[in-house]
C-alpha cells in the first residue's frame, strides 16, 4: 500500500501524523476527550451503540443488498467490530468531503437518503475505539460504480487524526467499517449483547438482510450467527396493513396481549399499549409507549415512510405535516378495517380452540374484542363450542343465545366432556371456556348465566351390555330390595357425571342422556311399581360390590342393597333387617 493522503480531522491543525501502520504499542486505556467540534458531536449520541444505526443507514444509502455485522475476539483479547456492505463504495473525494467533514454531506438534496447532516459517521467514536478502519472499494467491472474505481483505506485514531491510503483492488464494490478494542471475556459478552440490542432497536425492520456473526476464539461455544432483520410488524393478536408507494402502515389492537409472549426479536417495550413506532426504510426514527398520538389510542402501530425525518438530535421524528397525515391514515385504517379483522380472527381461533388448540391466541383476541377501538357486539364475537352443532365448531353469542331455550342459562364447560356432546345431539350449544376470561366475556356481553353445565344437569348413560357378574349382582340387589317391601322393576348400572354424581342411587328410568338435576332428584324419590334404579358405576361402593360379586354375588347384593336403602330410607326397621338376615342365612346354607 502507498499513502496518498495524510491529514487531521480537525482542519485547524495541519500537523503531520504517522500512518496507522507505523504506530506501535496500542494501549487499551482511553485517552482524555479532545476538545473541539468532533468531541461535541460525539457527545450528542445518548446511546453510544447507535453508531450501528448510522453505519447501517450509510450502507443502505449506498445501495447495499446485504449487511454483515461481525464481532470477533482473539485469544489475546483483540476485538474487532465490523460492518460490511455491498454498496457503491467511496472515492477519496467522497471520503474527505463527506465522510470526514462535519455538515458536508453528499446526501444533501437527495430525498431517497435518510441522513442529511453529515454527522452520523462520527458516532463510531462514541464507544471509544482504539482505531476505526474504513475500507472501501469500487471495481471497474461493477456497473453501479460510475466514477473512479479503486480501493482505499482510511484509519481514524483516538486523537481524531486520520490516514487515507490506497489498498489493493477488490472485486465489485462495497465498504467495511471496523472498530478495534481490547476486551476481556466479560467485557466482550457485554459488548456483544449491546451490539445485538442496538441492531434490534434501530435496524430490526431494515429493508435489507442484516446478519450478526459472533466469533470468540477464546470461547468457541459462544460463537453464533443469526439474521436479525424482520418484516415491519406489530406484536399484536391480529393486524391490518396499508401499503401505498413506499409508505407502509401496520397496526393492531393492544388489549389482551398479556396472554402472548414476545419473540426473541421483539423488544420488551413493544408490549406496551399504546405503542407507536416511526421508521424510514425500516430504520427506527422514534418509538414510544406513551400516549402521544390521540388518534392511535389503544393501538399498536408502526409507520415507515421516506417522508418521515429524524430531528437534528436523532432521537425523535420531526413533527411535520407528513407525520400528521400518516397518523390520520393509520387511525382511519384502524376504524375501517380492524374490527372486522378481529372478528374474523376470533372465528378462526375459536374453531381451532374447539379442535383442541392452544387457547392463548384466542384469549388475546377476546381481550381485544372487549376494548376500544376494537370492541365487538355479541353478533360479531365468536366462542368455541365443546361439541359441534350442525358442523359448526364456533358460534357468535347471538347464535348461541338463539339455540338456548328461553329463560335458561348459556351453558359452559372448562374442558370437553361427554355431556356437551349429549347436549349437541339435541341442538343445545355448550361453550368451551378453557380460560376464565371466556366466561367473563360472555357475561359482559349479556349472556344469560353463564352457567357451568354440571351446575344443574346430569349425564346418565345406562350400560347397554353389562357383564354377566354385573347382571347377576343387579338381579340379586333387586330381589333384596323387594324383600324389604319396596316394589322395584329392576336395578341397572350406569355411568353418571354431574352435580348429583355423589349419590349412590341417582334416578328412575327411563332416563338416558342429559337429565336436569331437579328431574333426577324427583325421579329418585319416586320408588315403586315400574321403577328402575340406576346405580352409578363411578361410585366406589358400586365398583367394590361388582368386584365382590365375582366370588360372592349374594353377599355383595346384600351389602349393596342395605347401603341403597340406608341412603334412601334411613335406618332399617327390625322387620326389614330380619328379612334380609334370613335371606343371607338361606344363601349361606
Mean pLDDT: 84
Question: Which segments are poorly predicted (pLDDT under 50) over 5 or more consecutive residues?
Answer: 1-35, 102-106, 114-118
Query: Roughly what percent helix?
Result: 25-40%
The count of strands amounts to: 24
Please describe the topology of this protein:
Layout: E1 2-8, H1 37-42, H2 51-61, E2 67-73, E3 78-85, H3 92-99, E4 131-138, E5 150-157, E6 161-166, E7 173-182, H4 185-203, E8 210-216, E9 224-227, E10 240-244, E11 247-253, E12 275-280, E13 283-288, E14 299-304, H5 321-354, H6 360-369, E15 382-389, E16 392-396, H7 397-402, E17 411-413, H8 418-425, E18 430-432, H9 436-444, E19 451-452, E20 457-462, H10 468-483, E21 490-498, E22 505-508, E23 513-516, H11 517-525, E24 532-536, H12 540-549, H13 553-569, H14 574-588
Parallel strand pairs: 2-8, 12-14, 17-18, 17-19, 21-24
Antiparallel strand pairs: 1-6, 2-3, 3-7, 4-5, 4-7, 5-6, 8-9, 10-11, 11-14, 12-13, 15-16, 20-21, 20-23, 22-24
Helix pairs in contact: 5-6, 10-13, 12-13
Question: Could you explain the architecture of this structure?
Answer:
- The chain has 14 helices and 24 strands.
- With 589 residues, the chain is of the alpha+beta class.
- The radius of gyration is 39 Å and the shape is elongated.
- The longest helix has 34 residues, at 321-354.
Amino acid at each position: 500500500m502507498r499513502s496518498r493522503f495524510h491529514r487531521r480531522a480537525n482542519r485547524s491543525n495541519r500537523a503531520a501524523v504517522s500512518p496507522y501502520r507505523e504506530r506501535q504499542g496500542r494501549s487499551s486505556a482511553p485517552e482524555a476527550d479532545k476538545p473541539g467540534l468532533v468531541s461535541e458531536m460525539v457527545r450528542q449520541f445518548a446511546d453510544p451503540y447507535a453508531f450501528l444505526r448510522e453505519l447501517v443507514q450509510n450502507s443502505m444509502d449506498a445501495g447495499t443488498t446485504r449487511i454483515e455485522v461481525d464481532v470477533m475476539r482473539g485469544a489475546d483479547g483483540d476485538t474487532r467490530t465490523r460492518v460490511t456492505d455491498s454498496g457503491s463504495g467511496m472515492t477519496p473525494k467522497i471520503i474527505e468531503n463527506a465522510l470526514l467533514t462535519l455538515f458536508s454531506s453528499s446526501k444533501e438534496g437527495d430525498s431517497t437518503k435518510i441522513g442529511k447532516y453529515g454527522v452520523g459517521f462520527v458516532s463510531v467514536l462514541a464507544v471509544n475505539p482504539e482505531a476505526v478502519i474504513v475500507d472501501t472499494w469500487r471495481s471497474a467491472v461493477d456497473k453501479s460504480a460510475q466514477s473512479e474505481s479503486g480501493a482505499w483505506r482510511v484509519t481514524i485514531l483516538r486523537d481524531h487524526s486520520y490516514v487515507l491510503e490506497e489498498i489493493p483492488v477488490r472485486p465489485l464494490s462495497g465498504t467495511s467499517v471496523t472498530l478495534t478494542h481490547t476486551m476481556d471475556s466479560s467485557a466482550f459478552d457485554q459488548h456483544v449483547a449491546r451490539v445485538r440490542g442496538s441492531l434490534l432497536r434501530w435496524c430490526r425492520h431494515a429493508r435489507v438482510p442484516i446478519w450478526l456473526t459472533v466469533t470468540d476464539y477464546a470461547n468457541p461455544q459462544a460463537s453464533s450467527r443469526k439474521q436479525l432483520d424482520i418484516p415491519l410488524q406489530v406484536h399484536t393478536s391480529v393486524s391490518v396493513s396499508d401499503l401505498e408507494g413506499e409508505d407502509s402502515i401496520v397496526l393492531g389492537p393492544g388489549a389482551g396481549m398479556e396472554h402472548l409472549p414476545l419473540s426473541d426479536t421483539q423488544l420488551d417495550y413493544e408490549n406496551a399499549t399504546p405503542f407507536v413506532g416511526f421508521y424510514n426504510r425500516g430504520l427506527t426514527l422514534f418509538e414510544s409507549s406513551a400516549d402521544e398520538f390521540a388518534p392511535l389510542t389503544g393501538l399498536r402501530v408502526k409507520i415507515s415512510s421516506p417522508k418521515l425525518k429524524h430531528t437534528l438530535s436523532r432521537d425523535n421524528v420531526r413533527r411535520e405535516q407528513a407525520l400528521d397525515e400518516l397518523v390520520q391514515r393509520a387511525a382511519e385504517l384502524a376504524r375501517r378495517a380492524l374490527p372486522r379483522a378481529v372478528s374474523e380472527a376470533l372465528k378462526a381461533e375459536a374453531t381451532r380452540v374447539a379442535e383442541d388448540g392452544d387457547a392463548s391466541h384466542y384469549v388475546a383476541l377476546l381481550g381485544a374484542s372487549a376494548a376500544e377501538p376494537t370492541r365487538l357486539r355479541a353478533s360479531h364475537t365468536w366462542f368455541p363450542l365443546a361439541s359441534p352443532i350442525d358442523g359448526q365448531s364456533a358460534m357468535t353469542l347471538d347464535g348461541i343465545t338463539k339455540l338456548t331455550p328461553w329463560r335458561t342459562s348459556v351453558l359452559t364447560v372448562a374442558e370437553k366432556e361427554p355431556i356437551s356432546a349429549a347436549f349437541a345431539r339435541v341442538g343445545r350449544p355448550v361453550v368451551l371456556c378453557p380460560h376464565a376470561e371466556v366466561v367473563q366475556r360472555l357475561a359482559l356481553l349479556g349472556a344469560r348465566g353463564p352457567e357451568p353445565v354440571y351446575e344443574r344437569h346430569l349425564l346418565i348413560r345406562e350400560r347397554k351390555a353389562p357383564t354377566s357378574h354385573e347382571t347377576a349382582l343387579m338381579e340379586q340387589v333387586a330381589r333384596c330390595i323387594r324383600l324389604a317391601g319396596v316394589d322395584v322393576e329392576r336395578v341397572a348400572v350406569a355411568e353418571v357425571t354431574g352435580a348429583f354424581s355423589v349419590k349412590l342411587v341417582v334416578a328412575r328410568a327411563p332416563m338416558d342422556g342429559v337429565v336436569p338435576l331437579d328431574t333426577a332428584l324427583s325421579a329418585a324419590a319416586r320408588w315403586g311399581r315400574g321403577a328402575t334404579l340406576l346405580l352409578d358405576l363411578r361410585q366406589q361402593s358400586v365398583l367394590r360390590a361388582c368386584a365382590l360379586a365375582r366370588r360372592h354375588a349374594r353377599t355383595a347384593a346384600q351389602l349393596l342393597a342395605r347401603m341403597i336403602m340406608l341412603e334412601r330410607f334411613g335406618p332399617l326397621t327390625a322387620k326389614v333387617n330380619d328379612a334380609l338376615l334370613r335371606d343371607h342365612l338361606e344363601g349361606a346354607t
